[in-house]
Design goal:
The complex is a heterodimer. Chain A is α+β, with helices and mostly antiparallel strands. Chain A has 22 helices and 20 strands. The chains are: A alpha+beta, B mainly alpha.
């Protein structure tokens, strides 16, 4: 303790610390300024940016899909409605590892690996972020319960009730009304992304497709506030969707069923039109399929079965089936002959059973090898005399014939509102030069006169060509929709009416067609026995395989599916036509023997009441007066 | 005990008539500011917690406990503190070692001492006050500015708990404790050329830390800080959302309870570390500036106490505590506004959390003690 005490210089220490306090205070002020500058930058300069960011965080716009318009038959029977259905949907962003969740779904619902592959495909088609993607439809009670119990293993998965298209009439209208199906990637690119933002289904074929815009309606919106986990907390604003328009079809379900019954399970097609308006009353393509399969997604196996079936149920024979019209075209050819002055009602042709062009050896045969002798127009139609029409066609030439046939709708799309109608083919010199690089041969004109050769037409076109004769040249495009939300469909591209130099030509041809049904030697007279009304008709046969020169058609040599298709067109009552029917029976061989009875049966179904008498609305005016007396 | 102190206390010191607050060793201005902050905290917390009264009650309770702790500590004379600081330091280091050896796991990091039913606390919190006190105690006995030898010994004293806390791992707290010790050296007049060379050396050290010390989650924080947009739904989410919250507040904010970012859960940690974003969203630039002004008043008072402290120990300790407090504020607001990487530092007095509140109030208890135990000299 002898050492001197080392005294500290307290004044110096205090000064030192005070200096450091000043330095510290300055540093603090500077750093506070840095903070304020930063906040100024965020809150003033970047205000708009961050404001938007935070609004986008919380406000989400959710589309409300419109309810699809309903489809009725002409009597108000429902053909397509919307049914609540439970579907399983998944939001990828909320599922975490969605592949694992898919595995869990498959396990919970005891599904197969195929289903899983389908789910995965659907998930990959998922559209915008945070949008639930429906992966499984038509859940039953048990499945819903299973999902509920296992919810903890299924993050991002929910059972959603939504309206799904349903076709209560099943296969009856699959080819006319068509069906809706899930929107695919390709359609997605062409669709209005706004209007379809809440829609999962779109019309794929038929009326559903053609009137998609009207049936779909206008999407509605809901601006909702969501929290960070995407839960909707409240609705900020709502714009209601505009439901799709209801469509009343001109089809009549009873006639449709009658037509199907008349075909009796045979493969074939039927079109029934009202010639006065162009309304399609029945449209059958058999076999058919259940359109409900396609709504929620058909399984690959079921689709392959339909697609690969030899009977081709998916094939729309009415609109896409192309057949040589055969003799059913003869009435139209006859009109062309009369109007162009090549023939008149009295001019006659001698039929030895064949026709020969001058300077050619080739014999163009009449179906009746023994020949009909001297034939005039009326007889030619009644007997379906080929020789007469070879001669007529030869005299007309291809150019005029082609022009007239085009006026009758051959080689044109005739319908107003049918999806994927085939235009058929009416050959011409130009067509042959362009497609075959060959000159036109006179012989090719001849066979066109009897509806063979290059000419191809759909059953719908045949019906329309017949309707033009029934309606004396006045065009009404065949259409399926009678009204769309009360408004009849508008024809933006009307066909020109056929105006003949002599209007009585219509009656001359019609008379020939009446003779087919009612004449003593009419080819289809058996089909008209006991009819309460006059029918004008014409049979036809469409070759499936060509018969070589000098050979005879021998049904026994041909496989069943290579036999000729039977065709028949007709209208009734002949003097005041109310219905036009075109029938095609695949491999039916005989137009008058097989197809004509089908036509008769359908006509009876439409024109007669339950007592087998002509319905009053179809009876001629004079008869009504008599019965009134 | 310091000879000079004894001399002062025994000789012609004129005790000014002390007010009631001074007699119970409470500093009036500090108390008012602290109470204002507490009220503000509850106000903002009510909104940030989604109107959670339980949480408010807990925070208010913590605040009460903190005030008691502050009051008790304010009664201790600085001389008494200085006497017990070495022991407290050794105890603290020992507890940190205990935590290191057999600590209780929480949030992937080992920070807690937990004797179930008895006590559960973080020794590192304790060190936030003990560390600057220890260095102040050590340096107050040396000549200032400190010699290299004394600086080196101080660095060892700082380094041991620092490394133990880094190992927990809790880099944020470790750095704050490092800072609190370093501020004592700074207040003690550490030579500028040494300060400059340390700052220059910090760069290679930081690089070395990156490769050898930092955990993946810490590295991730730094990476996210540098480019939050690189992972907007993952680790960048916090910072993007907090910036959006602050930015969308604008000048006057969206209004109390009307902040969408926090109320719709877009803002994570909205009632703890990121609470300033709630304030910024609901009260705008004006709200944050008001808070900063209150903080500045607090800091100003702290620096005044530093300047007026009569003992070197008091000066060094008060200065360090005040500067460290500012660092808390700066680091928190800096990180939430995207200036600094995200480190787990709460906003003093506003963020929810009892531990930090008690620690902070205890520190202000120390400041009050330093200020109210002064002896009054005639000419002052």
């Amino acid at each position: 303790m002898s050492q001197p005490i080392r005294l500290k210089d307290h004044e110096k220490d205090a000064r030192l610390v005070r200096n450091r306090v000043v330095v510290g205070a300055v540093a603090i002020m500077l750093l506070i300024c840095v903070l304020i500058a930063r906040l100024y930058y965020l809150q003033i300069i970047q205000y708009d940016y961050h404001s938007t960011l935070s609004e986008n965080n919380r406000v989400h716009v959710q589309p409300i899909p419109p309810t699809r318009g309903l489809i009725f038959d002409r009597n108000g029977v429902i053909i397509a409605d919307n049914r609540p259905s439970f579907s399983l949907s998944m939001t990828r962003e909320r599922a975490g590892d969605w592949q694992v969740v898919l595995d869990n779904i498959v396990e919970v619902l005891e599904l197969t690996a195929d289903d899983r592959a389908l789910f995965e495909k659907r998930m990959r088609q998922g559209r915008r972020p945070f949008e639930p993607v429906p992966i499984l439809f038509e859940l039953n009670e048990e499945q819903i319960a299973r999902v509920a119990v296992n919810q903890f293993r299924l993050p991002g998965v929910e059972v959603v009730a939504q309206l799904v298209r349903h076709y209560p009439q099943g296969a009856h209208f699959a080819h006319s009304v068509g069906y809706v199906g899930r929107i695919n990637e390709k359609e997605l690119k062409t669709l209005d992304p706004v209007n379809y933002s809440g829609t999962h289904h779109i019309g794929k074929t038929g009326i559903e497709r053609f009137y998609e815009d009207a049936l779909h309606g206008q999407v509605g919106y809901e601006e909702v506030e969501t929290n960070a986990r995407g839960r909707v907390l409240r609705v900020l604003k709502r714009t209601d969707p505009k439901p799709g328009k209801d469509i009343v079809l001109s089809l009549d379900i009873k006639l449709q069923e009658a037509a199907e019954a008349a075909l009796g399970g045979r493969r074939g097609a039927v079109v029934a039109l009202d010639p006065r308006t162009g309304e399609v009353l029945a449209m059958v393509s058999q076999p058919s399929f259940d359109p409900n399969l396609f709504v929620t997604g058909i399984s690959f196996k079921a689709y392959a079965e339909l697609r690969d079936s030899i009977d081709r149920p998916l094939f729309n024979r009415v609109l896409r089936g192309l057949y040589p019209p055969g003799s059913t075209i003869k009435p139209a050819v006859a009109i062309a002959g009369l109007d162009s002055g090549v023939v008149n009602a009295g001019s006659r042709v001698f039929d030895p059973g064949y026709y020969q062009l001058p300077n050619y050896d080739h014999k163009y045969r009449n179906w009746n090898r023994s020949g009909d002798g001297w034939v005039d127009l009326d007889t030619a139609i009644m007997r379906s005399n080929d020789t007469y029409f070879y001669d007529l066609a030869h005299k007309m030439g291809i150019d005029r014939l082609s022009t007239y046939m085009n006026k009758f709708g051959i080689g044109q799309k005739v319908s107003l509102d049918m999806f994927e109608e085939s235009s058929g083919l009416m050959p011409s010199r130009e067509w042959k030069r362009a497609t075959r690089r060959q000159a036109w041969f006179p012989g090719e004109t001849l066979i066109l006169g009897i509806g063979q050769g290059y000419m191809q037409a759909t059953p719908l076109q045949l019906a329309q060509a017949t309707a033009l004769i029934a309606n004396k040249g006045v065009w009404n495009r065949p259409h399926l929709a009678k009204t769309i939300e009360g408004q009849p469909p508008v024809d933006d591209n009307p066909m020109e009416n056929i105006i003949l130099r002599d209007k009585s030509d219509w009656a001359k041809v019609t008379h020939g067609m009446e003779q087919v049904m009612h004449g003593a030697r009419g080819t289809a007279r058996k089909a008209a026995v006991g009819a309460q009304y006059r029918i004008a008709g014409k049979s036809g046969t469409a070759q499936v395989v060509a018969i070589k020169q000098g050979e005879k058609y021998d049904r026994n040599k041909l496989q069943e599916r290579h036999r000729d298709h039977a065709l028949f067109v007709a209208f009734a009552p002949a003097d005041d036509p109310k219905i036009v029917i075109s029938v095609m029976v695949e491999n039916g061989e005989s137009g008058s023997g097989v197809a004509a009875p089908v036509v008769r049966q359908i006509m009876d179904a439409w024109l007669l009441d339950e007592h087998g008498r002509l319905k009053t609305e179809f009876a001629p005016a004079t008869v009504t007066q008599e019965s009134a007396l | 005990m310091n000879n000079f102190d004894r001399m002062l206390s025994s000789e012609d010191v004129m005790r000014r008539r002390a007010s009631f607050l001074q007699r119970i060793h409470i500093d009036g201005p500090l108390l008012v500011i602290l109470l204002a902050l507490a009220a503000g905290s509850l106000f903002v917390l009510y909104s940030a917690s989604g109107k959670n009264w339980d949480l408010l009650l807990k925070q208010a309770t913590s605040f009460g406990i903190g005030l008691v702790s502050m009051f008790v500590i304010a009664q201790l004379e600085p001389r008494f503190m200085a006497r017990w600081v070495p022991l407290a330091y050794l105890t603290g280091v020992l507890l940190l070692v205990v935590v290191d050896v057999m600590g209780h796991n929480a949030m992937g990091a080992t920070r807690w001492i937990n004797i179930p039913g008895v006590i559960r606390f973080q020794p590192s919190e304790f060190m936030k006050i003990i560390m600057p006190a220890t260095i102040a105690w050590y340096l107050s006995k040396r000549t200032l500015p400190p010699h290299l030898k004394h600086v080196a010994i101080s660095l060892v004293l700082i380094g041991v708990p620092f490394i133990l806390i880094v190992r927990q791992p809790d880099l944020g707290t470790a750095l704050l404790i490092l800072a609190s010790g370093a501020f004592v050296l700074f207040m003690g007049g550490l030579r500028w050329r040494w300060i400059v060379s340390v700052v220059a050396a910090a760069v290679p050290v930081a690089v070395a830390m990156w490769f050898f010390v930092m955990h993946d989650y810490q590295k991730q924080r730094v990476l996210t800080f540098l480019d939050p947009e690189s992972d907007p739904l993952g680790t960048g989410w916090n910072i993007i959302q907090s910036k959006a919250a602050i930015g969308s507040g604008g000048v006057f904010g969206k209004g109390w309870l009307l902040g969408t970012q926090s109320h719709l859960d877009f803002l994570p940690e909205s009632h703890t570390d990121f609470i300033i974003a709630v304030l910024g969203e609901e009260f705008g630039l004006v709200g944050i500036c008001l808070l900063l002004i209150v903080y500045l008043l607090l800091i100003g008072r702290g620096l005044m106490i530093t300047a007026q402290a009569q003992t070197l120990f008091g000066k060094l300790l008060a200065g360090s505590l005040t500067m460290t407090f500012f660092v808390y504020v700066f680091v928190n607001i800096g990180m939430v506004s995207g200036l600094l990487p995200v480190v787990g530092v709460p906003l003093p007095f506003i963020s929810y959390g009892g531990t930090s509140l008690v620690t902070l109030l205890s520190a202000f208890g120390v400041l009050m003690s330093i200020h109210t135990h002064r002896k009054w000299i005639a000419q002052v």
